[in-house]
Write a structure and sequence with these properties.
Length: about 220
């Protein structure tokens, strides 16, 4: 189903939103007609990857009584690269921790995760020639960086980012406290690397999301 590039793009777009998406919004996002978008979206619904319903009427639609059809992820887990998994990243952190500090590998893993995140943040900061980015700029950059790492970040408020995917999902199911701690340390390091000291990575486990969220002051 997702071998088709267009359907994959539609699916990824909808997964990245924090609200249901209309056919018009999906079509505009991938640059196709509404009719073609409707065809592919309904195929994704048939495959169980999306769910569909009729949303509340807005604007002119209210006078006609017609409600737009909206789409959202169904919650079905698929064993492709969506949702993305990054076992290589956490594997490197854990191997370095165990090899370098076998007596207290957990504490070492948290430190190494923070350093890895900080390195990524510092590289982005240098690329964008930032001094001390404010809250909004930091959240935008962090969202871009975490999206590239498979966390599927979405804005859930003016100064709140939720992560819809844990790239280390299977390991988190086996060792939740350790993996969630590594996630928090990694993302905190990334934020510090960007040069901001006010945006924080906060542990807030919630079914269907990564255990960490980003909060601005």
């Amino acid at each position: 189903m997702l071998a088709d590039e267009l359907r994959r793009d539609l699916y990824q777009f909808i997964r990245g939103q924090d609200k249901p998406v209309t056919r018009e919004e999906a079509a505009a996002a991938v640059g196709i007609s509404r009719k073609l978008a409707a065809f592919h979206l309904d195929k994704l619904v048939e495959a169980g990857l999306l769910s569909a319903r009729y949303g509340a009427s807005v604007g002119r639609r209210r006078t006609s009584g017609r409600r737009p059809k909206v789409y959202e992820p169904s919650g079905t887990q698929i064993s492709l690269t969506i949702p993305a998994r990054r076992y290589d990243l956490i594997g490197e952190i854990l191997v370095d921790a165990v090899a370098g500090h076998p007596i207290d590998a957990e504490r070492a893993a948290l430190r190494i995760a923070h350093e890895r995140g900080r390195t990524i943040g510092e590289a982005a900061r240098a690329e964008h020639q930032l001094a001390r980015p404010g809250t909004d700029r930091t959240l935008r950059l962090a969202q871009q960086l975490l999206a590239s790492l498979g966390f599927e970040p979405v804005r859930a408020g003016e100064r709140l980012i939720l992560l819809r995917n844990c790239p280390f999902h299977r390991l988190a199911q086996r060792q939740c406290r350790l993996v969630c701690g590594i996630n928090e340390a990694f993302i905190d390091g990334l934020l510090r690397g960007l040069g901001n000291e006010t945006v924080t990575a906060v542990l807030n486990p919630d079914p269907g999301h990564c255990c960490v969220e980003l909060r601005g002051p």
